[in-house]
Amino acid sequence: MTLEPYLRPADLDEALAALAEPGARPLVVAGATDLVPARRKARLNGASLDGDAAWSRLLDLSRLDDLCGIREVDGRLEIGAATTMAAIARDALVARFVPALAAAAGSVGSPLVRNRATVGGNLVTASPSADTAPALLAADATVRLASSAGRRELPLAEFFVSYRRTALRPDEIVTHVLVSLAGRPAASRFEKVGLRNADAISVVCAACEIELEGRTCRAARIALGAVAPVPVRAFAVETALRGREVGDAAAAECARLVHEHISPIDDLRASGRYRGWVAEAVVARMIADTAREARV
Amino acid sequence: MSDMREIEIEVNGRPLRTTVALDETLVDVLRHKLDVFEVKNGCGQGDCGACTVLLDGAAVNSCLTLAVQADGRRVTTVKGLGTPEDPHPLQTAFIEHGAVQCGFCSSGMILSAASLLAQSAGVPSRAEIREAISGNLCRCTGYTKIVDAIEVAARAELADERSA
Amino acid sequence: MSAQGRQYRVIGRGVPRHDARDKVFGRTRYADDFVMPGTLHAKVLRSRYAAARIVSIDTSTAAAMPGVHAVLTARDVPHNETTSKFGQTHSAGGGFEGLYRVLADKKVRYLGEAVALVAAETLAQAEAAARAIDVTYDPQPGVFDPVTALEPGAYRVGEEDSNLVCAYKVRKGDVEAAFAQADVVVEGEYRVPFGDHVYLELESGTAWIDEDGVITIRASTQVIEHFRDVADILGLPHNRVRVIAPMVGGGFGGKEDITVEAYLALLARATGRPVRLTYTREESILAHSKRHPYVMRYRTGATADGRIVAMDVDMVSDAGGYPFLSPWVLLYSVVMATGPYIVPNLRVDARCALTNNTFTSAYRGFGAPQVCFAYESQMDELAEKLGLTPLELRLRNYLHTGDELGTGYALESAVLTDETARHAWQALGEPTAPRSPHEVIGRGIASGMQSYGRLVYLHDSSRAFVGFELDGSVVVRSGVQDIGGGQASSIAQITAEVLGVPMDDITVYFGDTALTPLAGTTTATRMLYMSGNATLKAARAVRRAVAGKAGELLGVDPDRIDLVDRTARVEGDDQKSLPIVDVVRACASDGIPISDLAQFNAPFRDLEESDCVVGQIHPDYTFGTHAAEVAVDTLTGKVTVLKLVASFDVGQSINKLSAQGQLEGGTVTGVGYALLEDVKMDQGRTVTGALDTYLVPTAADLPDVQAVMLESGGGKGPFGAKGIGEPSSTSGAPAVANAIADAIGVRLKQLPFTPERVLTALKERERSAAPVASER
Q: Are B59 and B88 found together in one domain?
């Protein structure tokens, strides 16, 4: 029996059933903006593709209504994994409750890429420089994973296991990204440092959320990308900020602790030394600016 | 041997049928199977925008779009946007304001601009225009006259809407 | 109103280009857009090593694979090697022949060098067969730095004992004595990287054998006259090879050398079928010519009142694996090494060396942008030391008409650098205030000079045919290659002006070696100058014939006949006029030619006997100034360009929009050079292999460019025009460089100014300024 090579399921259960089938497991695609160039590179480099089982069957999630869209459900913002960056960047709920995510999504690639690329794809590819990751980590986001065996939720921090590896099981897909609305909106910032202003891979990207009680910091959440094998939270910085008045000097002082969490490498785009400088400087600036916003 | 699938894409209002492999991209299918040559291929990996088409009205890189994912959908190219007899304001403005030099980026550039204009209530600012075309590289013009032309077209469209 | 107050009908106006129409309606077919039944697909097998001996090549497996029609190596090429003599230029050493090799034979000299060719029914089959070609390499150490390549014992890249491609010198006055007298001396070493043209349209072509047995190649090229080289390679008479250039999607010098033409001709002949080849972007970046990296040491001496007394220049350029146009590029650098300034005492030593990096050749500017970065940095350094503004220092030293270049040539045409500098500076307007405590703002200017027209001892010429049809419509035929600068449209516009017909009445046939008189290359900013003058000459000849007949028919002196709006009318007497079509028919009936084929020759000179570069080297030069304002983020080193101005004397703009477009586009070429573009190679291996790692400016990275055009009417082109395609790209990068130095108080001397380099410079300045280390 020949398995259907291209599947466009009508609903999530149909998709999950396809993933659970014995035999060649289909390749899950949504925007395909990472998968297509990877396939092309493999072909140009002479990889023998005829026997490449991965591309013999495709499971297209891009038009699954269940996975597209942004809703408020039970006190959480529920973002469908197949929602495009463009949709996230212009969404009113995201703008209100997780503006750093709107900024991050709006910084990915170019407007053309953003009309196809999805937040689920960004997280599953798990590039260390994925732009939505720091914003979501700083928002204490959760991912919902589904298989035909059931659903589970995982804090995003636990989703990134190691360099380009996630906790996703072979028969699972990411269905939603969830952010608790309690205490939101919070003052927040996202900053992306790249070599140019569009279609640029981040050299350093970071997000920050700060909650103040009077003039003192009650809680801070700071996350960075492109400076470690996975996107990371800078817990030492967060702890140092707690209970302090956050002015420029305090921000700079606490930002120095970011080095405990990052291990930036030398690559084509920048050296580890430069990334280290910028991570600290950008975090300091971000904390100060966010605190200023929170005080208003 | 990869499975071949039959697909149907509506290109500029005409339904076109062909068979494609799963990993074939929309740009390759348009150019090599359907003679939709006005869609260009400048890099094959989403970095130059020469391959821009409107897919159900949204501007996308056709080199990043799988042909199978375009099955049953509408593709618009510059030929569908306007003709010499009935030009889109962007096409008129690009001609009249020196926004075309070698022209290789023009097909894609105009579609990204069309997408911006369709989404804008009023006249977008020059910064917004630059952002909207930031995925379309041009090596000839330096972009200034392209921004001029898009601004002029936006104003013309707004004037048309007001007088309609 | 134009230069000198002349009133032109269409010259100088921003008339819409006819090719723009086709392009926005998606009708223009570029080289890869043509469909021919039975076309095979070609693939080039390229070297995986930068330096290696080829021990053996076994094509037997590949040749037997499904769908494969031909597999070719060097031994299948009738004349695999040609040498071009670089036209009588004298050299202080090294061979002066440019070796061109179609396919690698016995050794490879750069990574990506073509080793074999395949033609097959499908692209996938061609790719598979190429991979199945078994090449045994014996890797060699190679050499990857031009200075090292010139040291004794360096790895021999080519077949000569030395890696020296060529060397030039200029000597004027007494440099050492002048330095001894100078009140101020500045010195610096400047480095510029490899660059890629990144034309949007990739290299592409199709070749076939036509019904007369003529090998016909349609290719995206700046030079259809490579038909001669292809014929030589195939061992055919020149009149049995035809090259056609459709509209080209950008060239910038990267399509000046042969790219796909020879490969296609060989495969078409071997298979008897049409064959198509289109590069991938990765292949284009890997294997086509690059901009020359240079190391330049400059020393400039001046008096206390800001007059330059001496300049000492030593430069080395990297030719990569093969010379191609490197000797000429270096020659341009040498001639323009001092920029638009009077330098009474001068020493220039320049050398070019082979390495195992990707070969370098023509790139917009052709050696002028590299030296402009160096001398414009020197000018600002001098100004700072002397306490003069950058503008004032320059105003005290600019060349004017009648002044001599370092080579002794006295400038003949208009030189308005002073005005361009004043305009450029003024156009920056009020300084922008920093938008945050971490931002610093700076502004800078840079002036440049750049030739237009080819080297004078090449005896350059251009031809155009202009003729009326019997219904009054007009045909222009010229072998112009239109790469986006409106080369075809310009000659229509000139014809419209002279013959008094609307642009829409004119059809231009261009770019075909069989059917259009050869106009020469679209390179060296020569096309408007050369084909414009040829077209002007031909159009005027037709005008004379038509005006003569009209005068006869109207009973007036032909000098009183004006051609306007499709009529021949008598000046000052509107009653006396005839429709032009009637005059044309009368000419035809009386055997008077209503068409003309004209040739325009550039000034022909021969090189003077000398071991130095002396005399007139180019027909003329264009002068201009760029100004820039930048913001620097002191936390990240990121540079944002806030304002850009390009002020140039264009002589006379033919199409105002096209002229502005060249100024604006050329400026952005400079910004890319300054901030982003760097083809990084590691032991000859290109590591920035695609457009996600080799970065060029997007629309979001730039402000508007303000083009300020001056029109002196003093150029040698038609109607007093000067060429601007390359001049507009020469001084943009140094303007940005000077603005950054102004902003951060440190001068960087290596392009591009990445955020990392800027931040590193800022940190180093902090460190050296702080007497006591206080960090944790």
A: no
**B95/C667 touch (CB, cutoff 8 Å), yes or no:** no
pLDDT above 70 for B126: yes
Looking at the complex, does the CB of residue A198 fall below 8 Å from at least one CB of chain B? yes
| CB contact (8 A) between residue B134 and residue A110 | yes
Q: Rg for chain A (alpha carbons), in Å?
A: 20
Q: At C349, phi and psi to the nearest 5?
A: -125, 125
Tell me which residue range forms the domain holding B23. Answer: 4-80
Percent of chain C with pLDDT over 70: 96
CB pair distance less than 8 Å for A193 and C755: yes
Sheet holding C620-633, edge to edge: C439-452, C620-633, C639-649, C705-710
Report the predicted TM-score, pTM, of the whole model to 2 decimal places. Answer: 0.97
- Tally of domains in chain B: 2
The tens digit of pLDDT for each residue in C482-515 reads: 999 999 999 999 999 999 999 999 999 999 999 9
Of 3.90.1140.10, 3.40.50.1820, 3.30.365.10, 2.40.30.10, which CATH number belongs to C367-374+389-455+609-768? Answer: 3.30.365.10
pLDDT band, very low/low/confident/very high, at C85 (cuts 50, 70, 90)? low
CATH number at residue B45: 3.10.20.30
| Rg of chain C on CA atoms, in Å | 27
Chain A positions touching C438 (Cβ under 8 A) are 285
Q: What is the pLDDT of residue A45?
A: 86
User: Which fold does the domain C40-140+200-250+255-287 belong to in CATH?
Assistant: Aldehyde Oxidoreductase; domain 3 (3.90.1170)
C669: phi then psi, degrees, rounded to nearest 5: -55, -40
Torsion region of B35: left, alpha or beta (phi above 0 gives left; psi -120 to 50 gives alpha): left
Contacting residues of B for C14, CB less than 8 Å apart: 98
How is chain C split among helix, strand and coil, in percent rounded to 5? 30, 30, 40
- Cross-chain Cβ contact C200/B107 below 8 Å: no
Q: Closest chain C residue to B84 measured between Cα atoms?
A: C25
Domain C18-28+461-601 = CATH 3.30.365.10? yes
A72: exposed, middle or buried (Cβ count in 10 Å: 0-12, 13-18, 19+): exposed
Alpha-carbon gap: B47 to the closest alpha carbon of chain A (Å): 7
Q: What letter represents residue C681's amino acid?
A: M
Interface check for C660 against chain B (CB to CB < 8 A): the answer is: yes
| Model pLDDT, residue C340 | 98
Identical fold between C18-28+461-601 and C40-140+200-250+255-287: no
Cβ distance of B69 and A40 shorter than 8 Å = no
**Chain C: nearest CA to A226, how far in angstroms?**
15
Residues found in chain A: 296
Of C635, C695, C759, the CB nearest to A196: C695
- C489–A contact, CB cutoff 8 A: no
